[in-house]
Amino acid sequence: MKEVISANQAVSYAVLAAKAQVIAAYPITPQSSIVEMLSGFCATGALKAKFINVESEHSAMAACISASAMGARTFTATSSQGLALMHELLHYASGLRLPIVMANVNRALASPFNLKADLSDSLSQRDTGWLQFYCESGQEVFDTIIQSYRISEKLLLPVMVNLEGFILSHTYEIVDLPEQSQIDLFLPPAPARECLDVDNPCMFGSTTDYYINFRYKMHQDMEKAKTLCNEVDAEFKKVFGRGYDLFSSYLCEDADLILVTAGTIAGTCRVVADHCRAKGMKVGVLRIRMFRPFPEKQICEPLRKAKKVVVIDRDFSPGCGGIFAQEVKAALQGFDSRMPVYEFIAGLGGKDVTDKDIERIIEQTHNSENPGESTWIGLLR
Amino acid sequence: MKKRYSLKSLDTLPITAISFITTEGNETGEWRSQRPILDPEKCNRCGICWMYCPDNAIHAEGGAFQISYTYCKGCGICAKECPRGAILIEKEER
Amino acid sequence: MDRPAQIKFPIPEEELLYSGHTACPGCGAALAMKYVLKGLGPRTIIVIPPSCAGTIAAGFPFSSLKVPVLRIPFESTAITASGIRAALDVMGKEDIHVLAWAGDGGTFDIGLQALSGSAERNDNIIYVCYDNEGYMNTGIQRSSSTPTGAWTTTTPAPYVKDTPKKDIVRIMAAHNIPYIATASIGYPADLIRKVKKAKEMGGTKFILIFSPCPTGWRYSPEMTIRLAKLATETGIFPLYEIENGEKYTLSSKRSEKPLRDYLALQGRFRNLTEENLRRLEERVEKEREYLKRLAG
Fold it and tell me: Does pTM top 0.80 for this prediction?
């Protein structure tokens, strides 16, 4: 059934449809309406879950960890500061190999304070062993959360679904909410796994010098994740009629210049790409959807055919540059180390990235022979 | 604790650090520099030494309490708390 | 000499703590764990943060506990217990006890926020704090539970701890949870009685267990039980229960033994000044009067 809802509402509806069992959450702008709606579902019994009103995000993730270790399907949502506060526990969750799904509404990290869209919060957590998806629509958010429960419960790794603060979280789009029976078919109750069990007692998470072996097992399973995510997406497409792949590619087959980005900036890029094509410039757009594990081989296929690659980062790693740019350059290194990668930083702290900005990016790239330093869009003169 | 796993190879390890063997194989009696000796004649089987042993190294067997030297760390609590003075401490000969 | 015909077990027989664990000889924390598990039985799930208890529980692939254990982050003892209870509730499993197990560091300091959160929500957990008055697992650093005048590695002599022990029991009482008790390894039967009482109740139950530490307090290990008893006899660790934040019941009696008797046996108080001794004695008196008034 099609509804006009915000992406935050789409998150809540997805968690309802997924029949989460334990939700532990703490408010933070721009995520709060997710947990408000979920607390309503739990209070009325629409969702038969325990809702724990925790006293911090650190505790929110801790509760998800222990509930998940009991075998329950869990959920939490957060943003920037809250995600940063959870950092220690993100490692814990993946290290314990727990299937947890979390929605992160991307927001800039303080200081200074900024409540708006910026991907640095989740990208700062890229080493924590969580899978990461970046969505560009309310529909994709809903669908990805459903897929994520399947993926995390098969892989035994937690999944973070990212959506930009305010741009997605608070804007209303048409989202098709499938019938519960369809969801139930696609997403059955979690398969049995090693859990805390009084009839079969053991200890989870002790100290060990076998540490490197457990990390390797995580590495092996992260590698399997790429195939698994594709399989789950393909099945999703069969059942619901729409799929997303690990990345989306628009007009890349014959492109001279490919814009690489994540999230909603991709939408603006596609509009500009159409204008460019009309003027005879062969521009393509590649939106990276799955960031962890990073789909190196998969994105290099379309990228290596281009003459120039442009990465637009709505994030920034001080002392290093755009994070997507780093990862793309590293991926290309294995395939075509001569490919020029032009780096742009834009949209930090929710600064609007307009079609004019993208046109400027394309023009600058077109006119320069070498990438040079990264360019920052939207600064004061 | 069911033994489902082994340390032989990557494949026989659990997915994370899930302990599957008890500590009973760890003979903490090796730590001792002194040992308690229980005199069965003086013992009135009140169970106080058994109760206060942090290592559960005192067991009831055949109607009497026995000290397990496999695990006894020689802390001396049993000797100190015995109301009959039935436990004496001696130097551990190594 | 008359000998009883039967062997006696002053407390429940079943052991849920295996031998072979690596607690120090004479460890009070190991005794606390032994007794509480006897009180709760095998249908118990326990969460343990980094602590002496964590070390005692052993490293992979071993475990010294006969119950399921989740090793959890330092700050999160109370909330992880709450998360387990939430999962049990949603799965319809009611007959399992959830035991949050932390030391004084993990309770009075880093774990206080989570504990206050769980207590405010009145989550159905039993929270046991075994109190050895310092961060012993990391090498005897001071915690807010360390008493006035004590040496620790972070309050080195003569700059020993000059602030009083944090009154965690009053903090918990202010949350009006159904049950709070102080207990001691010196009195195992009383400890187990309190554990059994707690397990029959819903809501948040908090038990503080006095657990002397030979390594950290600098005394010979065989004195662990003597010291535990002396602490109660001299009044520095009185035993009592609080129900619903209001009803106080004393479980230990005042004795005539001076506080010096207890302090003199411990190397950590070797640098005790007269001033600090006076402060400790004053606090003991104040607490005695306060409890007497409240217990009616």
Answer: yes
